[in-house]
Fold each of these.
Amino acid sequence: MIIQFLLYVAGFAFQSADEEREWMKQIQSGNKLYLSKLYNRYHRILYGMIYNVIRTKEESEDLLQEVFVQAWEKADQYDPSRGTVYSFLVTMARNKAIDVTRSKAYKNQSKEDHIINDFTLELQHDNPNPHEEIELHERAVKVREALSQLKKDEREVLYISYFHGLSQSEIAEKISIPLGTVKYRMRQGMIKLRDMLADTAI
Amino acid sequence: MSEKETYNDFESLCTGYVLNALSEEERRQFEKMLESASNEELALLEELTEARDEMALATESPEPRDDLFIDILSEISKEPRKAPIIPIWGYRLAAAILLIGLLGLVMFSQQLSGTLDEKTAVIEEQTTIITELQTELEKRNELLAILESREVNFVIMAGLDVNPEGYGKVIWDTENQRALLQLANLPAPPEDRDYQLWLIKDEQSPISAGVFNFERTSTDLFFKVEELQEQPSDIMNMFAVTLEPKGGMPQPTGDMYLLGQEN
């Protein structure tokens, strides 16, 4: 039964990705209804990601708007051979959010040193969130479980790198550890995460 | 690998690369490696990229405001569908055309009429989208109410021989006797047919839980099950989906597409 369930989840993820590629084709041809479908599916995750980077509600909303406007305007630049629609959107959202944190205006607000956590806050939310779609909820639970199995030090390095966009040498300086240790933890963390997510996806 | 070793092998550089955390020199070194990378190494890059993107799913945050998508809609409607603006000299020109002759007036009127038609089409399109979004929002609110219930049973249904790709899920709020049905990868039923959901308790006769219809195959078709005023059996509960004549039948007569048993 467990294997059936995992096959089901993996199957859903693949079919969902195929479906979203079809949606992108519709968006490319100017059908706004499919942009709304994409928005309904991903706006909370993208907003959560952006909010974790810049930590202000209003700016996060502006950036989320930019992401979907850009997804509409540059839909023809989406190349299915280079990744999923989710990957296209989340990469765009992360790059935009990190660009904001690097701007002069943002640094002047002294937000550079805002909360550095190691996904601990996120790991506390294991209860099903009714606002997440079922498939996304199942994926989120798996990611949270996988992250919870990493060492705290590894999670911390991944968190800073992903949500703060810092290089390995910047991370070393920020949390006062040797560069080699940052590289080691990043490698260990990412490889373990990859292995655990691959295991659950069959 | 100890912490003191160097980290310039493919795997180490790859993890830093996907997170965009390498120095400029290391990035160039890795991109050089990529030019002659093996299939396994390319697969590693792809898997690590996917793992990186999945990290966004671990976040929680407040909700963005409800009307944000309306702003997005109006933003994307600005550029490509901007209505032509007629400058002051345009009106003078129109007046000149009026003076020149009736033919010019007719042409100008046609142009205005075209603009009006275009604007009307934009408004109609926007109204349709807003109506569809409102309907979808109402539907989602109903579905969320079921998901928020305390006592919820999940039953996963697998596709049978007639359509092995199909699958489905029943989320059964037993306390409030309502349920949510998800159907995926089922072919759209012919015009004279409906899919019908059945509850089978303890291998007794199936109990109809309603009929369902849709026009396009999809992976996210959700339906509120209105006719499930039954308590679950303590022994065994199964759900099945069959294809039946329009409006449904008292007992199943058509091909069975999905079947699943409660854990």
Note: Residues 39 and 45 of chain B are 10 Å apart (CA to CA).
Amino acid sequence: MDKHCRLTDERIVDLGDYTEAMVYTISGVELLDHAEFMEELALRIMSRYESQNYGDFLVLEDVTVEAPERTKQFYRRLFTQNGMPTADFTTEASETLCLWIEQALCPTICAEGNPPHSADPAWDVLSIFLDRGTPRLRVVQVKATQHSLQDNCNIALTGFKRVEDGHYAPQLLAKLRSMQRSGRLPDGVSARDLMYDGRKAYRITVMHNQDHQQLRMLTTYNQKIPGHRDRRSAHLVYVNRWSDFWKALAGAIYAKLT
Amino acid sequence: MRSLLNDLRQTPTPLALTSRDKLVRQIKRAHVALLQSALSVHPAEEPNTAEEQGLREYALWLEDAALDRLSELDREIESALNLSATINEFVGSLGPFNNANSIFHPPLADLLRSAILASLTSYKAQSCLTGRRVRARLDQWQPASRLDRLHRAVSLTVADLLGRDYQASFTMSTQLRALASAAVLELGEHDATGLEYVELDLAAAIGIAAGTAAVGMLVGDMAVVLKARELFSQTADKARRDGDNQWHWLGERLRAVTSTMHASSTHRVLKEHGIPDEFIRVLERDGVFELWKPQLDAIHAGLLDPTDPPHLVVTLPPGAGKTLIAELAIVSGLQRDPSTFAMYIAPSRALVNQVSVDLRDRLRACGIQVHTILAGAEQSTLLGAELELLSQHGAVTVTTPEKLDAYYRNAQSIFDNSSVIIFDEVHKIEDSTRGATIESLITRLISLQPKIRLVLLSGVLSNHDELLEWLGRERTRVVVAQRRPTRQVRGVAVAHAIERGAPRPAKNGLLRRVRFSGGLSMVHENQDIDYGVVVQIPSIFSGFYNERLYGRVWRRDASAAHSTTNDHAVTIAERLAISPGTTLVFVQTPDFAESCCRRFRGHIPTMHARGRDLLSKFVASELGRQHELVGLCGRGIAFHHAKLPTSVQRAVELGLERGWVQVVFATPTLREGLNTPVTNVVLAGYSYWDSGKEERAHIRETDFENLAGRAGRPLREPEGRVILVPDSMAQASVVTAAKKYLLVGEEALRVRSQFSELGEWINRSDDIFRMPEDHQSTLLGLVAAGLDGEDSLRGFFQQTLWAVQDSDGDKTRDISTRCAKVIAAARESAGPDRVAVASRTGLSLTSVRLLFERLSPETNVFQTPSSFDERDPVDVVVPLLLNASLELKEIRKGSLAKDGPPGMHLLPIKHWLRGSQYQVILGSAIETGALPRSADLGDAVRYCSDVSVWLSWSFGACLTVLESLVSDIDSWVGSSPLLVRYGVTTRLAAYMCLLGVADRSTAQTLADFCRLSIRDESFSEVQRWISESETIIDDIFPENDLRNELFRSQMFKQRSRVPPYLLVEARYFTVTETGGVQQLAIDQGALVIRDRKGRLVGEVVQPQSVFDFCHGSLDAAVGVALPNGGNGAAGSQMAIFRIA
């Protein structure tokens, strides 16, 4: 990612009091035209998709979940019969891209996404960053939308509000503890302290195809997530040829399936 | 709340909380925020749910921090867990439900977390409540999809496990596999992802593990409980691997809960200590599957030691499990040596009654007879029968200290054969009138019956170390707990927002009215007070007083009009009545209780109509239809004081326990009799009229603690409240009261020996006749025990609590010497025979000498053949006994202290003895001058109470004196102490009362029925008849008569007798899965066992018991395999359940 893209400097958006940055390509050409980028993203999507669970159950009997394999059958949720991308594909791809951005373009010390088809309610990626030497948690949601930027941002904000109100606190803590136990959190970073920290940060990463400068989006960000502006941010990934981008990405993956 | 939360948010985050002190301090502060909101009584003030956020996060941090240190569970960790449980319960109760039915989303998630955390602390009662609230919510959810049905069933299984409704949890879990199969089909219909199957599998696994834990606890099979713990562990691990955070979290938490369940399992712990299965089954029937921490502490201290159990000093708050500790001491003591007997000493008749019911209900299952001797110090011809009953092998007798003292004076040697004696409310040692008797008794027992084992129970004493020293440090252990099973919040009423009116001319100067608003200043239990946290709740009541201008200074004029403590208490009670629960308001006098009740305008929910109707009818039958209590009971409020007949007092107590009456205004005398917890206790003032000392006095801290201890109903509410309304709203008075009572220190709860006063008297004079009567009696008690020589007395005094507390060895030596001299001198002057007689009566030697003088010339009247064959013995005997009695200083108390000829009492006492109504007794007492013309029914009740207590004692002493003078005492004379004690006409009715029937008219009715079906009118026959009368109560009293309910509650507990499961022997052909659910079927005449896949795995050895248990229908029955099955060997066990 960092070979191809950068983030613009953060700008302050007064309405909603948050910071905003955009992903742009270093070369100035569109993402779609970066073959190497598209290939690596395709591989990342496949790797993530194939990491989903299968195997024994504790209670269920006579149920088998198919093992991951690079077949059209196994990838049926991502593609239509004729190899076109489904809504699930967009979701999987955007989540993968979001994680990649957090890992490669942001000064995070650790970032982790959810498993495919995850039921975790209000975050797609959790990243840990240093704020003047103190590790903090950032809860990231990703949205991919061609025309409904405002609506999707509002949905994400509602989810963030619930996280902020502690509605999903046990799940979030369990996730962080799981990362800590398996050594995926850096040494000295405590899941509990990340969780309790009153300055948890939130970010919405949106892939879109709209002129967002003309839109009033995330206007209630500071109401849903109160406190210092550092807590609220948005990343925007503008995809110019929307359909072509997804078709090209889908095609790159579909070509690898038997 | 907002400002406190903001304050909380500004304090260091846990990142900076490195020291435990800081952590604990923060915990308290968070708790304060909750309290203020929870106790806010402003209906208009909606809680700000946005503020929940800070609490949730804080709770989570605390929860996680505490769980990390779970292995070192101490006060601080427990406090953190408890706080977190409280916060979760609080935020879970705040918000609307919004159709959220998932246990992973608020509010159910909050409640579930609360129940889990409470399960890990001493507040298990809170977990039960919260778990049941989750169930109540889930019961309203009727999901349409099969997947949701599975999730609902899993949630219910978990909620019931945490609510300790193990049977419901297990029953629900038996459906999980079928529901999971249906859900799998549903997933298949929409080509679900692997993750969806994984989640379904994890949910079902958690549910099955919860059901397994439930069945393990239910049947007491720890292998099954451990299996459940392993299942939780496996599920949590799998969820972690699968990235399913919510099931991972729940699995881990429930694994911790199962560990604590295993550690505290009643079955496991008691079986390991050899307690009989029958007793464990009774506990199981009552839902006691887990021992609470103080009970485990007592067991670790040697409560069930099979060889040489120590004495135990147990200080637990009310409701924390003292009764079970006592029961275990009795069971293990009698099991250790079945040829011994046990005793339970309770300080009041009401408590004797309640304890007897509790013990009888549980102990008879293991063959232990429970006898009740409901009396004071009076003696009768029944003494021999009572002693026989008392010393019956394998039996326990519940009685008062005075009665035990009487037995000990008359038959000390039988106590050699006593295995255990339990003294309840042992802090009564501090009591100026009874303390010396109790201390003397305990000291006599430890010095003269060294094999006996004592268990001293109290809720409020602090000087355990001195008691340890007293009973013998090497042979005594102490068990102390400060936490109640429900939290308790305490507060003091304070005045603020003072507004001074304009001056107005009045007699002798200017006055101005000062109005104020009253609020509460609340604190939460002692641990929190250490950190000085207080919650202010303004504007609950209002009041006023007047100030007078003295020169140029305005000062409060106490003689001018002002609102009273009672006014404020009534308003507070009205505000408290808005929320659910019961409220007990203690006022200082019976008149105050009645007037407060009249003024109460609070809203009482219109429920319990049948109960209130029963209560009203009963009160009307006892006091007359016009009595104001009749109408009040119908509204759900009542008053309770000593001027009500015992029967009505018991009825009001029953009404309070059942929730029929929601607010009761009572005098502090109720503390002696009430064992019923309430939600709120309000104390209107802290001073009272001490009739003994004839002066106004402040209630003692121990008494306050005792009263306050009633607040908080375990398993019914999460919190109890105690509110003190000071005598004055002046700030200094409020602060003093709060410091003295709410912040009561250990020194104030130190129990002090009352022997020092005896010592002072003995130092003053060698002449026993110059000593006060109560000290004479104490001294004579020692004589009765054979402690009359200098050496034996020295041995005795050196073993008293007094000697421990007053370490001057020379003093005890001197006292022993002087005591021996006093006794020798008494023998010389009064004669050894009279000293011996006096020592058995409990009266002073002065009084006994007087009785000898009065009765000696009249002995022929009392002998058989009686001189009153043709006349009513009441007319012949009572005047003589009465005349002699009223000359005794010990007896002239209360209504009997009134100056006048003894004859004025004769007529009302005759009516009392003939069972007349109080109205009739009142009329006759007014007519003869025993009561003033202004006396009312309450005065008559109190008069009868005085007659009952004091004259029964003196009539008993007269009997002892007469027996020393002549033989062949007439049987009516022999029974007269009991007849006058209980105000009944026949000996059978008196026996009924003696055995625990609290109401004289009920006793009379029962006696009439009893007479028809017993072989003879002996005490033991009556006792047998009562124990077997449960089946015929409905024939004696109709169901709509409260007497029916009262008698049942006094004699039998109305608990479900249906066993929840049946244990049968099974022969397994293959090794079976521990805790696995199995099906039963008939196959070629045999009752076979099939596993969940339908495979034949074994057969039931004795099928008939299963058919009987299932009423012939196997469809609704399932079995659970208990461990060690397999290989075709018989001897394995299987638990059969009926599944609704």
Note: Residues 5 and 33 of chain B are 6 Å apart (CA to CA).
Amino acid sequence: MINEIILMNGYGAYVWSAFSFTLISFTALYLVTKLQFLKEQKRFASKFGSLNAEQARAARSQNINREILSNI
Amino acid sequence: MFKSFEPNKIFAITSKAPKYVLFLFIVVLTIGLTEALVLSPEDYKQSDVIRIMYVHVPAAWISLGIFSSLALLSAGNFVFKNKNFALIAKSLAPSGFVFNIIALVTGSIWGKPTWGTWWAWDARITSMLILALFYGMYLLAWRIYEDKEQVIKVTSLIAILGVVNVPIIKFSVEWWNTLHQPASINILSNNIAIHSSMLVPLGIMTAAFALFSLLIFLMKYNTELIKVKNKGLDRL
């Protein structure tokens, strides 16, 4: 059974390389997107941290800013 | 008209949704892979190499669907002057491009044992390659142009021009003599020439790929919104 799945009637190299390429592409795209997201989130946190009290209050008045901060 | 579509309203949803979409994607992909690699039958003619269809076809469908969405959103941006359309389109493009590349590469792998060649300048393959070039130009334009108004105009133009290629891809197998077989599934005429034992895994894998593109879209859209907000903090 396992051998059948691996060998795929002699087409195993084609089938497995197609599926592997797809899954590797998925993983790479996910990781790149996640890293970009974390980088922007970090940049936001550091910029927010450097604001004075009044600027921070003004920034917090926006829904999205509050939402971003709640996720950091 | 598009008030409920504003980033302020939808960010609360888009920021929480990725973890649920990721979970659902993993579940659906696991079922799909089991069906595609283990449970589905081999083809009487192509034997087990037919299993490549379960990644090749959904990838091609979704890359075409995403490019059509880019063109629709770009046209919407021209008509309604809603910048959020451009942001949504920009967030959709990376997964569309990756699906296009997956369709080309897995198609090439499938071509070797069935047609005896990795590549042929066949109408379907060539038009898919042209789509990848349009995706490439679209993504590159977002990197090259710094002026926001200009980049939105250029990318919208690329998407609208590129969408002309979508029906060419779809009908290429009917208009020209190609190595590709005619479509086995035609939703418009309700003509499905594929057995349910293969249709079910194909459907599940398509759902998994659609969930993955949704996941990438949500993550990318959130990143773009935070970028906008980072610029906003600079102005305070």
Note: Chain B has eight helices and two strands.
Amino acid sequence: MLISAAIEHLSAASTEGVLLTMAAVAMLLCAFACLGSKLFDRYVTYYGLQSIVLSFAAAVVALHEHEAGLWVLAALTFLVKGIGIPYGTRHFLIERFALKRDVALSTGLSSSLILGAFLTAFAFLVIRAGTVPDALVSQATVPISTAIILLGALCMVVRRHTIAQLIGWLIIENGVFLGAITIVATFPFIVEAGVFLDLVAAVLIMIAFVSGLARQLAEASAPQLRQLSE
Amino acid sequence: MIALALIIVALPLVPALAAALTGRARTLGLISAAAGTSALALAIALAIDLSTGHPVHALSGFIYLDPLSGFFLATIALVVALSSFGSAAYLRAEEERGELSSLQVRLYFIFFALFASMMLGSFETGNLGLLWVLIEASTLASCVLVGLEAKAVSLEAAWKYIIISSFGVTMALVGTLFLYYAAGNLTGSPTEHLTWSFLFAHAGALQHQSLRLAFLLVLIGYGTKVGLAPMHTWLPDAHSEAPSPASAMLSAALLNTGMYAIIRFQALTKPALGAGYASHALLIFGFASVLVGALFIVLRGNFKRMFAYSSIEQMGIIAIALGFGGTLGFYGALLQILTHAIGKAVLFLTSGDIVLRYRTRLIDEVRGVLTIAPLTGAVLLLAAVAVGGSPPFGLFLSEFTIVRAGLQRSSVVLVAALLLLIAIVFIALVGAASDMALGAAPARPTGGPAYTERSSRILAAAPLLAGLAVLLLLGLWIPNGLNTLIMHSIHAISG
């Protein structure tokens, strides 16, 4: 394998580098958009959009690396995360139970956005400290993917509805995936495929649980889940 | 040997296939018990083979077995065997009472099978990425068991469990990525950079900064599965809401699977970062867990929750033992993993019999188990004493070893604090168990006998008696084979 071909050494100024950085920024914006919304429909739309951008980023890396496995992953990301999961969530949960907006916000929209901005700054401060070498594309994408992970976690915390928690976790997963393809594109395919399979299984089980909860509680909101507090 | 290893993973899946054909708990339970027992026999045979110390690998490290894998395989296979007997009896009783539909019975056996198989599989892979995939898959399978009863409260527990563990395990994936990144400068193929044996051989050359981050993320990630405080919050809910044989699997098998992953990563950090780095982190999380376990176990509410807090405390003790390190520390940790697994499996299976009998999970509503069901009452008392860490049972020996390791390698203050907390847990656990076992039986026995048929009674009693017998044996004498296996396991992770 040519050393210069490895994504770990891809410079930020190359065409692929610019495309990847832009994709990462678009994904960060999607995460913010999700955080700044309280309509379930929007959560799902922004998540789908973010996944489509992610599949584009994966395709850029695949083109660069000439890896068949990465092409498959890009296609799977597009089909499953970009279309399948948003469609499934909308069809089986939001429309079926006529869920509209998240009423159980623990902080206001603006304060959660400010918190999100702080977390993004924090991610840049922490990762810049020398984990990733200078002038590489990963220097931009790794802090951004860390920020996306933190924003997803923030979504899970401040939006209390189970659907919001589900989408928050999926955003975290997207952040991890972005970091993975830009620092270590050569992750063995079989492992990536296994990770993907687990994700799909997890989403299916979560949808089943949320619909079970929605049937029993009318509003499947996490604050209602307090029988087991101790 | 590879074929044997694959059969061990495949055997627990047989009941899942059978569940496609029938939804009767009676048939499925017997198949499950038979599959569990044969997997146990094969796992012990494999562990004996592996105890010579020579690792076996195939498929470029995707299959990798060393003595440590053998030790965990045998331990978890034992738990699976005990719980599958328990499941056979418990599910039959629930089916007869009309508490579970045929679909729920099928789902139970399918996901119990997947759960067992994924956990056993995770000990047989040397690829840390695949290890992550299998551990996450076992979480998913087990959360279906937690939510099986589909009541609001069990769905709540299952939701908490899946969302907290998925988040935690995702952190472990990030940690695994950073480890892979840390190996970037090494020669070798990408697959080798995720293979434990390759990384262990080159552990000294891993990049320090990334490795530090990797270990902490992995400790938090897999620590969520182990139930280390403060990531333990899913654990009491899931353990109390799952059907009791599934609680036994969660507590005695799943937590140890997480611990296995942590042990593997700990071994990788030592050459580059020194023993202290991982040790300190493990000691901090370990003490936090023992403290949380001891504080919450004194709340006398739900007895399954109480046993769950005892699991948190026990996992904390194991983490502390790993933190002490050295041959004694690792020996104590591994022995504690084995003895706690058996003790806790017995305790949760007993709790299943009590739930069936009294139809409650509250300590204060259960009195006089010894009078109503002498065997269950006696096992409850003895198992509580055993898990509390009293002689002549195995846990005394392992905790004693851990204390010795602490005195040898750490400070007296830490050891004294640990002993104090262990004493609190012992008093709370045995106190509650004796209140439940003794005392006047309620005037109206709420649920009728737990099991109506003789065969169910035998199925339910067999794992309790077998487990207690093994615990007693391990308290009096460590068989030579087990000793060799543990010593070679320690050698495998300390080079």
Note: The CA atoms of residues 286 and 316 of chain B lie 4 Å apart.
